[in-house]
Amino acid sequence: MQMDAVDQRIIALLVADARSSYAEIGAKVSLSAPAVKRRVDRLRTAGVIKGFTAVIEPAAVGWTTEAFVELFCTGRTTPAQITVATRRHPEVVGAYTVSGQADALVHLRAADIGHLEQALEKLRAEPFVTSTRSMVVLSRLVETPTALPPTTS
Fold first, then answer.
1. CA 92 → CA 32, 38, 103, 146, 149, distances in Å?
2. Which of 57, 93, 110, 147: disulfide with 116, CB 3.0–4.6 Å?
3. Where in the numbering of this chain does the HTH asnC-type domain appear (predicted)?
């Protein structure tokens, strides 16, 4: 899909605050509210914008402990199997296939170390997991919402 600078600006404004009205966005990109709505609808139809959601601060809901876990799997484990298995665990907030020695990288969030240990043990119990290597997060330094690459114009 071809996106111009106005589309990119609209997306950036929605990433910053998805609750902004079309009129508020229009004022910032010099378009009417209906014109912004048409562009947003087009971006949604094209799959550029997948949805709108609330972003929760994990610590505010008591999930203050997190870790990244490298999964090492049996030889014929597929990404689809890893996807299905990791979706069963509410503590999993992200799962990725990766290059290197590990087969996948899983991001876990939990209430405390005990909860993290329980979640890790459940993940280790998946039949295709042969071993894991965990790294507990001490502090989050940078977190940014999904953003577009800078424009070259």
1. 41, 36, 16, 19, 27
2. 110
3. 3-64
